[in-house]
Records
---
Amino acid sequence: MRELSFDLTVQPWITVEIEGTERELSLREVFARAGEVRRITGDLPTQEFALLRLLLAIAHDAVDGPKDLGHWAGLRDDPRCFDVVSDYLDVHRGRFDLLDPQAPFFQTAGLRTSKDEVSSLNRIVADVPNGEPFLSARLPAVDRLSFAEAARWVVHTHAFDTSGIKSGMVGDARAKGGKVYPLGVGWAGCLGGVFVEGRDLRETLLLNLAAADTWSIPDGGGQDLPVWRREPDGPQGGERTPAGLRDLYTWQSRRLRLHADTDGVHGVVLGYGDPLAARNMHTREPMTAWRRSQAQEKKHGEPLVYMPREHDPTRSAWRGLGSMIADRVQNQPDASGVSAYLRPGILDWVARLVTRRKLSKGFLVRARIVGTVYGTQQSVIEEVVDDHLTMDVILLHEQDREAAQQAIDAVGDAESAVSVLGDLAMDIARAAGSESTSSRQVARDRGFGELEGPYRAWLVALGEADDPLDARAEWQAQAHTVISRLGREMIIGAGDAAWQGRTVASKQGDVWLNSGLAERWFQARLRSCLGRTFPPGLPSDTHKTAEPSLKVHA
């Protein structure tokens, strides 16, 4: 019987957007046509993130670098810089066969449980949301995958697989009673993933291809190797530290083996691989922001611990701008110089490019954020986060921080204005006799939704502004206009009960609160937070306090 084979270097399997359509390309084709490919698409945004990291590992290893800025600039200026990948794939072609019997790609040959169980492919095809398979045509189960689909999900599984109890593999000392107890999600699942997207895949690869001298990672004595240049893994996993980006981007957080026949893949054996602790990986993992964790410092008895800053699915990317572009100075370090947050290392790298004039002012990059939200003790994927933010690279300039600071402060303006809108919603509810707080959140959601488009457009133009302070004032005017309009609409729709009002308690004592007074408070608060000029025709005392003291008369 002829051995099965699916050579990822020549067989199409990576889904991309090219010439306005979606198609599958082989590894060779992806690099050869990187200038034509708009982006990787994938079955999920998280798959795109995992596949990009795979391509970066290949690129780093094929060009053996870049070693420094000069090496990177040479690659950027050479339209055929990725031609070396073809020869590289020739050398390592034997390790890129998905179905190779001795060293299948990203798998462990002969992997088995003591009872030789083979699981459903549901184990590696992510469900979004929980309990509802994303690919609904496959309900209620994934019975079979093409080789191309299976290859994509194998890469995704190492990156984003769920935690929970998994089958113990023969030869894995961690197995107890045929099971291995939770060791955490796949490495990328720990991150609030961030990468930089260019106009095409070639540009995207280059922008994320950080020079070796950017990071404080030791060279590991030449041990920074992708998985296909290491000895094939056995069933036993173990803890170690990544030797560099090539090692990290191909990290084997799972042990798995596909079961296939000539018609495709029909089952999988899946267990734990090499766990990787997230604590203080900020000098090694560039594709996430970081937060200081005093709880982890106390738990491990360490003076400083940074943990990945995961994405909040309820917040659009523009509201988290500060965590992406603020450097250590702008992140308000404490007296000892320790910052509460660190921006993603990949944006430190882009900041270096713009500061050293390898990227010019006016060059637009798109910061993509991708991540997962896990539920039920990380045993299921509940939600996938996917957003982006387009900005001028001048916002990352290390010696010219003013534009970045105004961009961050402008988000603060929006937060404050939306908070005022929420207060108005609560005041109207109180005037009508309701104590429910739900109206506040509804108003806040609408406020952020209405400001998002204008802010994104303002941010794109900020890099070309002559004076970032003047640009900030223009943003405040826009925000004032938007939130004022929403406030007026809320007042008009408040209803008779709110218009008539009632007695409520305030900081100044009991007041008769109705929609008219709620509007005066709203306008005063909005002027206060956005610095707008006091409009003529309103009583001059309304700007002095957020809640004018209007006593109830007997």
---
Amino acid sequence: MTEKIFKNAKWITPEKKTEPDVRKGAGYLRKILILESVPENALLFATAHGLYEISVNGKAVTNARLTPGCTEYNDRLMYQQYDIADLLKEGENEIFVTLGDGWYRGCIGIDGTRNFFGEDISFICEAIDGVGKELFVTDESWEGSGQGPILLTDLELGENYDARLEDIQEWSPVRTLDFDMENLVPQDAPYILEHEIFEGKLIKTSAGEDVYDFSQNLAGYTEIMIENAVAGQTITLIHGETLDENGNFTIANFQPGDRNKAGGIKQEINYICKDGRNEFKPHFSIFGFRYAKIVTDIPLQNISIRSIAVYSDMRETADFECSDEAVNKLFKNSKWSMKSNFCDIPTDCPTRERAGWTGDAGVFVKTGSYLMDCEGVYRNWLSSVRFNQHSDGKMAYISPRNGVPGRIAEMFSASVGWGDASVIVPYFLYKKSGDVSILSENYEMMKAWVGFLEKRAGKSKLKNRFGKNPYRKFIIDTGMDYGEWCEPGTDVMKTLAAAFRDGQPEVATAYFSYSSRLLSEIACTLGKTNDAGYYRDLSDKARDAYRYLVLKDGHIHSERQCEYVRPLAFGLLGEDEEKNAAEDLNRLVIDNGYHLNTGFLSTPFLCEVLAKHGYVDTAYKLLLQRTYPSWLYSVEKGATTIWETWDGIREDGTVHDSLNHYSYGAISGWLISGVLGINYAHDAVIIEPFPSKQLSFAKGYFDSPKGMIRVEWKYNDNDCSFHIEIPDGVTAKIRIHGMEETAVCGGKYDYTISLGN
């Protein structure tokens, strides 16, 4: 299809060949098309190296933003299809294209790497009528210019715009480029669009700064409207997430330091006015921010500014409400961090790195697939994950790439929990949708990863560390693993140093067994019987090795909550061992004052495993804890998104690290599947709520692929009443503690349980 569409088209760039380190602004292309008559149907196919906007006769072809998105350009680049018949006219037509650096050659990643995929932004397109006749293509007949109003266009640095230069006068012949087109594929991911809008409130900080507060931390940009401007007047807007401990504007919390080659994450708009009314929003930049500091020589009363959220077009599919407003806010914050970081691919944060970390994607996928219809974003990302897998099965921990990997990156590509996203993400997407193609297109990648873990197993650096027992070759204690990242009370560098010396056999062996088991289920689903048996046996052996490794007298002996959560969540223990582990975990939480001390990998499962093993009261006390470390600590500090660390704003008001990471928002999955009890899979629906008198009520829904599922429970004196709605055509098992399990078909159901005196 690609070859047929772009058969006569050429890649064109408006730029002359320059040194690669020369900072360029946007590029512009135009084509004058003469039509004797307007075709009834006209389709335009287009894509770019960089980002593009396209208009026909001054009217935008699409409202999508940052097209064609973030990708592995050399391996897979999506092209887009537009209907342009209504934009064409008889006679002279102008096709106008604006090109920006984007992920292709702009500053990307924590290092601010430039020109990572190439040095020249370029564009290709073809338009055809209803019978497939060519209307126009990109070729030498186009004109180009680099002398327009966008002087800087960068995702991290921002955008510089001179409105006095909008009438472009200098045009030159374009330069054609030779690229293989085998990597071009049709758009199969959601488009990036504008969404919610927030009006800015102007505040004055203690340092005398003029700052707009938009009330919501988000990923997007600001839109500026200026009345009665005089040509040459300027506005600078700097975008940040928070105010510092003194109430002043700051962007220090997400700066990467000297390693960033571009001098830091600036997130600036620098705008020069034309006479009269001016309206502006960035063309090819988005920022992570709640606040914008303004520096201008224009009277502030002539300026209005609002923020616009920009993310992939995903439908919200879940909601939650309970009697505790802080928990309701936590749920909303989880959604906002998801929106902020699902811009074409799932990223860690919208400021410092904007990177497609595998670990973050893996721990959140189960929750994310409840909160929003995000399958398209995940599948788009998985295509880059597949391309970046190492030949020995290791997984690049960031995809698409945003920097040249070095020795450390090579080592951490072996990290469990991160690499296991290659199995976990497709598995849970399939469990929601039932689409086996998700499994088949990623199957070889999953096999290669588990095969790599199998090779790691048993190759101990310490000879005879585990004796000559039969489990030795199924224990992983070599290689580098991130482990329980951002675990409270731990020194990250000391943890990694210890891991480099001794490995992290507990976490690595657990994931070895877990991913092998999931892969066995996947192989069975795909009808690969021999593979299913092999990986089931491999998982069982790794499970036995894990039990040998961590158990003594039927108990785990650790003061780290994660080392109890993980085996309980992954099903790595026997029945009595599970009971002991849950009891010991419950004691640890109580002894810690009902505070968690888990990191990225085990936090999503903490309340779930406690509640399922009978410690519902403890799970709720953890959920409702207000002091650090806890989920609601950030809410008490005024957070509108989920933070990267448990204490992103410390008690003294000092701020550090990103304030917009979705990973710890995975608790919202338990609000749906645990508190409300909505457990949905394409082949089974189980309603098993865990109510607690620590809340007087909870209600919410999951708009599943098979229809709306609603659950509400509330306490009335000594009774707890339940209202459940199941969509037509769906059979669900209802498990309410104190009642017999029952199977119901689509409909509305009410139950009341007496709690006694």
